[in-house]
Write a structure and sequence with these properties.
The complex is a heterodimer. Chain A is mainly α. Chain A has a two-stranded antiparallel sheet. Chain B has 2 domains: about 45 residues, no CATH class; about 170 residues, no CATH class. Helix content of chain B is about 55%, strand content about 0%. The longest helix of chain B has 25 residues. Classes of the chains: A mainly alpha, B mainly alpha. Chains A and B meet through helix 4, helix 8, strand 7, helix 11 and helix 13 of A and helix 1, strand 1, helix 2, helix 3 and helix 4 of B.
């Protein structure tokens, strides 16, 4: 288990997820806790209904686990709250249900009875909305997006199962532009996914008491860059803004104003030093490593 | 050198900073007025550098049935299968306009350049006393003509004008299709009564801005 992960239990509505190490002690303890809970609250756990998903367990560990919790084995990839989960990066096979879900909508509509304007509305309101839930959490693979786009494009121009180039009057990226710029305003799923996932960076703040704050997160370069370009810091007491990295000097970061100087500061300090600390007694001057600076100066000449 | 310049610059910039202990540092979002995140603003921000297609603003504002607006959208992108386009794609040899049989049939020619369609525009606009808005033989581009002629109208008339432009263009396109596919041509008078009928039915469908035109027609009893 990742050393940073402190949470062992996740609760959502009537769902409970327990993370356990398959050690004897832990298993006995967990069973004991569940039994005590059952006696206290009257809510006993139905082991037969529980699903067990081993994460990187060898056979022996799995067998031990099964002795204590004789539930159903449900190996990864699994679906939790409508979102496919896997141990590795999600492949196209895991995202196929999403594509199928979009495709399954089409046959029930009498596409031939609608004109293109009507079909545009259907695409915008229904077909484009289906992937939202998944796109909020995971980066939908380009292939899956391509498959969904194929369905959407075919439906818009032809309303049939297949479409040829001549039927598609306008290139799909142009159709996906905003109405202000001359598109139809159909969402571009890739950009829409980025915009949705930017949200996590926004809500992830140290002062907010969100329990998942400490969990490690996968990083997407585009989303991070966009977040950096779209936000700035308003300095108050200077206890949260980071001196070297955050954009606090009139919407600009020291990183951008003084790139050479920034290079001479250690990574640890860059990510720790707040504005308040740095300005107190001009601490930031001491953060600059002289030796690094000399080397930099030499490399320029 | 650069390093010391940067050092002095930062020194200068940080001199005047006064920290206020009563306010917490706050992260701000650039793309909304209240400076908090919204997904739609983030999505819009991805499109910031894009250039708008000519006439998009007119098209968005104009009120017309969606299918007619969709047609005008294709016109703005110059993407209708006219004879000139078909010739360019080697689908046919003759690219002359079906309405006038003289010039190549591009979409702008069809809607505003062709003498036949200009006669339609003239007859429609004459009813409202807007003869000056009629496209002339020097009009080349549909969008240019539209935005130009629109500006000459009084502010209150512009909504009516926009809807009329879409309606008449749509009917000219329908007439072109009729001549191309059904080989059946309407005479100018028949086409004009068809346009008038269509305008009356649009008004009945709720396009109130066309009321002035219908009153000028004399169909006062139909006005709802």
């Amino acid at each position: 288990m990742h050393h940073k992960v402190k949470e062992r239990v996740f609760l959502y509505a009537d769902d409970v997820v327990l993370f356990l190490a398959p050690r004897h002690q832990d298993l006995i303890l967990t069973r004991g806790i569940l039994e005590i809970f059952a006696r206290a609250s009257g809510l006993s756990t139905n082991i037969n209904k529980c699903l067990i998903s081993p994460i990187q367990c060898d056979l022996e560990a799995t067998v031990t686990l099964m002795n204590f919790f004789p539930g159903k084995i449900d190996p990864f990839p699994i679906t939790y709250l409508g979102i496919p989960l896997a141990l590795r990066k999600l492949g196209n096979a895991e995202l196929q249900p999403l594509v199928d879900k979009v495709a399954s909508r089409l046959p029930t509509w009498k596409a031939n009875l609608l004109n293109r304007a009507g079909r545009t509305v259907l695409i915008k309101s229904t077909l484009s909305a289906i992937p939202t839930h998944i796109a909020l959490v995971i980066n939908i693979s380009p292939l899956a997006i391509k498959c969904i786009d194929k369905r959407r494009r075919t439906f818009l121009w032809k309303g049939a199962d297949s479409v040829r180039g001549g039927h598609c009057l306008l290139a799909w990226p142009k159709v996906c532009r905003l109405p202000e710029f001359g598109g139809l305003g159909i969402v571009d799923l890739e950009l829409f996914g980025y915009a949705l996932r930017l949200r996590w960076l926004w809500v992830r703040r140290p002062d907010d008491e969100r329990p998942w704050y400490t969990l490690p997160d996968s990083q997407e370069p585009v989303v991070e860059a966009m977040f950096k370009a779209s936000t700035y810091m308003e300095v108050g007491d200077g206890n949260r803004a980071l001196f070297w990295v955050d954009k606090w000097l009139g919407g600009r970061a020291i990183e951008d104003i003084a790139p050479c100087l920034y290079m001479a500061v250690g990574t640890r300090i860059r990510n720790r030093r707040t504005v308040a600390q740095a300005l107190h007694g001009d601490q930031w001057v001491h953060d600059i490593r002289r030796r690094q600076l000399c080397r930099l100066a030499w490399s320029i000449y | 050198m650069q390093v010391s310049m940067e050092y002095l610059l930062i020194w200068d910039l940080t001199r005047g900073i006064q920290l206020d202990d009563n306010i917490q540092d706050a992260l701000r979002w650039k793309w909304t007025s209240d400076k908090t995140f919204s997904t739609s603003s983030a999505y819009h921000a991805f499109f910031i550098s894009q250039q708008a297609v000519l006439g998009t603003k007119l098209w968005r504002k104009a009120q017309a049935p969606p299918k007619c607006k969709f047609f005008i959208w294709l016109v703005l992108h110059d993407w209708c299968w006219t004879a000139a386009r078909r010739k360019r794609h080697n689908l046919q040899d003759d690219d002359s306009c079906v309405l006038c049989e003289q010039l190549p049939e591009t979409i702008s020619h069809l809607l505003v350049g062709c003498p036949t369609s200009r006669m339609v525009w003239f007859s429609v606009f004459r009813r409202l006393g807007w003869q000056s808005a009629t496209p002339t033989d020097r009009t080349i581009c549909f969008v240019d003509w539209w935005s130009h002629a629109r500006k000459q109208r009084a502010r209150g008339d512009r909504r009516c004008f926009d809807t009329l432009v879409i309606l008449v263009s749509w009917l000219i396109w329908k007439e072109r299709n009729r001549r191309t596919f059904d080989h059946h041509a309407r005479s100018h008078e028949v086409l004009l009564t068809f346009v008038d009928d269509e305008i009356v039915s649009w008004l009945q469908a709720g396009y109130k801005q066309l009321e002035g035109y219908v009153v000028a027609l004399g169909h006062v009893s139909i006005v709802v």
